[in-house]
Design a protein that fits this description.
mainly beta; 1 helix; signal
Length: 197
């Protein structure tokens, strides 16, 4: 067999592999998750970097997440904000099991079918309260720029990169006009495993 013919076969095999992977990715309707109750914690920067706090969130998810924009994938059922610096002392995530913050699907990134690296979501409506020495600062609205980090099929954490969460009309004039949230929370305990469905 000539060298050129061998190269042609290699190229065709590579194209077939890509085509197969693409067809599998397109056929996938979403992901399943083996653990639907998740806790995550870490330090987040709030309000243009002026305030950094320990944040703990509890989240419930559906057993399967459809690859459909704006589909609800779960909700934040509770959370605490503690050990803040600067003018803030503590805070509260405005979510309970009876009234969770809805979390909705936006997109996912990575090389399918096995290499999902992040699932992008948003929360709407979301809200949090900061207690400060000058009063309380309340923020709420559509919280975009959230991604679930995935490594080797495991959900390892959630990263926030959110700007301009509006402040409440009754806030003190000393409260920043909008709330920004940045940083990463790490999954507590055994990371959930996701698989394509």
């Amino acid at each position: 067999m000539s060298k050129h013919l061998r190269l042609l076969f290699v190229a065709l095999a590579a194209l077939a592999t890509v085509a197969f992977s693409t067809s599998v990715a397109q056929a996938s309707r979403g992901v399943s998750i083996n653990r639907t109750s998740i806790g995550a914690g870490g330090r987040l920067t709030l309000n243009d970097g002026d305030t950094v706090c320990d944040v703990l969130l509890t989240l419930t998810t559906a057993a399967s997440i459809a690859k459909v924009i704006d589909t609800r994938v779960g909700g934040v059922t509770g959370g605490t904000i503690t050990n803040c610096n600067n003018l803030a002392t503590s805070g509260q995530v405005l979510a309970t099991a009876a009234a969770p913050i809805p979390v909705l699907f936006s997109s996912w990134d990575g090389v399918l079918p096995t290499g999902i690296t992040e699932i992008n979501v948003y929360a709407n409506p979301a809200g949090f309260l900061l207690n400060t020495i000058i009063g309380s600062c309340l923020y709420g609205g559509r919280l975009i720029g959230i991604r679930f980090n995935v490594s080797g099929g495991n959900v390892t954490g959630a990263t926030f990169n959110t700007n301009n969460l509006p402040g409440a009309a009754g806030n003190s004039i000393f409260c920043p006009a909008s709330g920004n949230i940045r940083g990463t929370l790490t999954v507590l305990g055994t990371p959930p495993i996701i698989t394509l469905v």
